[in-house]
Structure formats: structure tokens, C-alpha cells
Amino acid sequence: MTGQSCRYCNGKLSINLANLGRTPLANSYIADPKDIEVEELFPLHVKVCEDCYLAQVVDAVDASSIFDHDYAYLSSYSSSWVQHAKHYSDTMVERFHLKSDSLIMEIASNDGYLLQHFLAKGMNVLGIEPAGHAADVAREKGIDTRVAFFNEQMARNLENENLQADLIAANNVLAHVPDIGNFVAGFKHVLKPSGVLTFEFPHLLNLIKQVQFDTIYHEHYSYISLISLERILQACGLRAFDVEKLDTHGGSLRVFCCLASAPFETTDMLHSVRKAEVDACLNKPEGYAGFSQKVQAVRDGLLNFIEEAKSKNKKIAAYGAAAKGNTFLNYAGITSESIDFVVDQSKEKQGRLLPGSHIPIFSPEKLKEEKPDYILILPWNLRAEISHQHSYVRQWGGQFVIAVPAIEVF
């Protein structure tokens, strides 16, 4: 991509969505304070193609710089996400009559959080995962995992090994690939004639409506609507036949796809989501107008809350060393002067500093030691899980806070 042309169709990126300035990579946690001096910052600016309406970061960071061996995110640290994966496995087995000789493949399989449920049902599984550390964790669970970026060439190699799947999950990965056309083109090689492919991704329509700008970060190269996805599918010999609305990540879509020639009927729900996007003008420039001003208002809401709390000598901590939180903190210019510390369940992150803001990361036990007045939940999509697990903060009068789409104290 040239920086001002669409990475998929080469159309003009003439529609501005949000410019969040220069920030570090959202998952580049700092292990040694000396590394602060060499911390890199990259532009974080999203525009929309005027031809295919794919929303995308303008200056893409090379994927190998993000998803290296030490990439810190492990899916299994979220109990609700593991449960989401189990429910997925149960419903897919029932709906598509999967059996013990079925092959289930996952692209971006992380630490095996999803495939472990199919493996437990006695099915054949194969994970494709670019982050070596996550792949190592998956292998320890007995999940066959290949360390690689999925693309059309790799898919051809799998096809040559006669590895074609009955079900392929590509959940929360579509946004993470810089060459989305080459990525999607691979699936026609590894799907059986009646195989099913599912994509899950945060829905661009919700991002705009709920001002979820903190889901924008460098490893999310694209921000996807059904309108933009269906154009790519059609060009790659695939088609969507059904869609489900999910609560995950602040509102996601699960799109069911197949080969263009497969005998799946298009559902009413697919037509409904298409209509909702057209009604919101996601196929026109005006559907994206005014978003930047809403982003600024959300930022100002958090800054005003912090200023007022600090004026009353209140102690503020944060929960969740999450990528979305890093986007918000860095865009707002928040540092450890405003938020004392952040806690996270992941031992991979504890003892490090958040990128950019340099707020120290501790175990959740730190909350009991410090007893903060306010705990800002950065991964607001997990608010129910987090507030339930740590309801003990009420013992000292502590309260939880979320900032998206507006300040809420509870």
C-alpha cells in the first residue's frame, strides 16, 4: 500500500475515520525501563476506501514486527473467551453434523483456546499461528500447530498435503492481516466442497455507533463491514450465506462462508445485516462523517473524570493490560501520574510497563493491597466478567469505571 491507496482494491483512501496520532504498538509491553528510550512510535490513522469501503490504517506496520515469537496475547487468560469458544464448538458440531473423522482448522489459533474443544470431541485439528510462543503453548495441549502466516501460497501447500477442512474458524484474525485479499484467497484451497468457513470480527457499524475507537490499533489493519467483506469474498470464489450478531468485542459479526458453488441457502439474517449497513450509509462517505469529533468527546470525558477524581485525592487504578486500553491511554496522553498502576491476570504481562503510558502492570492482588477508589476497566467488553470476579472492591468502597462510549461509574 502506498499510504494513500487501498491495500485491497487500490482505490483512493479519501474518507477520514480517525487520526489517533503517533503511538507505540499496542502489545509491545516494556520489560526493562531502559527500553523506554528506544520505544518506537508509529502513526495510527484510519481512512476508508471510496471504492470498496474497506476501513484501514493508512501506514501499516509490518506484521512480522507485531506477531513475533514473544507476542504477549494468550486467549486462554479470558475465561469468558474460552467459554465462547466452547459454545462455538458445540454449535458448529451440531449444526454441520461434524464427526470424529472431520478436520477442523483454525487460522490464528493462538494458544489452542478453541481447537482444544474439538480435540476433546475426538476430532482432527490443525492450527495455523504466526506467534511462536502461543503455538508452543498450544502444542503442549496436544494441538497440531504450524507457525506461519496464512496466505494463498500456504493454503496451496496444505492443499497439496490433502489437508482440506470440514470447518475452518478464522475468528478475530481478518482485521489482523495486511494483505486481506491474499489471505481470503487461500480459503478456497483448504475448504472441502461442502466445507464451512466462519469469520468473526468486530463490526464496523458498532465501532462507529458506539465510538469504539480504542479497538483501533496497529495490529488491526482493517475495520470490517459486511459490505466490504462480501466484495472480497466474491473476488476469491467464496460467498457468505449466513451471519450471527455476537456480543463479543463490543458487538461482532460471525459470518458463515462457503465456496461459491456450495449448496448453502442465503438466510434472512444476512439480508437484514446488509440492509442495516446500507441504512447507516456504510456504502457512502456520509456514513463516516463526524466520527473524529465523537472520539475527541470520549477522550475528554475520561480526562475530565480523572482531573476531578485527582482533585479529591482519589486513587485510580486500571484493570486489563489490553491493547484497546493502550490505544485509549496513549491517544489521551494518560501516564502513571494519573493512573497509579494496572492489573492483569496474564503472568506474561505482569512486571512490565504498558507501552507509551509506562504504567506498571501487577497481579490483581495489587488491588487488595492498594485499595484504589476507582478501577478503570480498559477492556470494557469484559466488564461483567471483571466486575464479578473482583466484586470484593466494594469492601473498601471501590468503584469500577468504563469510559466507552461515555463515562460510567458502577
Show the helix and strand layout.
Blueprint: E1 15-23, E2 42-48, E3 55-57, H1 63-66, H2 79-96, E4 103-107, H3 115-120, E5 124-128, H4 132-140, E6 145-146, H5 152-160, E7 165-171, H6 180-185, H7 187-190, E8 191-202, H8 204-209, E9 222-223, H9 226-235, E10 238-246, E11 252-259, H10 268-279, H11 291-311, E12 316-319, H12 323-332, E13 342-343, E14 361-362, H13 365-370, E15 374-377, H14 383-389, E16 399-402, E17 408-409
Parallel strand pairs: 4-5, 4-7, 5-6, 7-8, 12-13, 12-15, 13-14, 15-16
Antiparallel strand pairs: 1-2, 2-3, 3-9, 8-11, 10-11, 16-17
Q: Summarize this, please?
A:
Helices cover 31% and strands 21% of the residues.
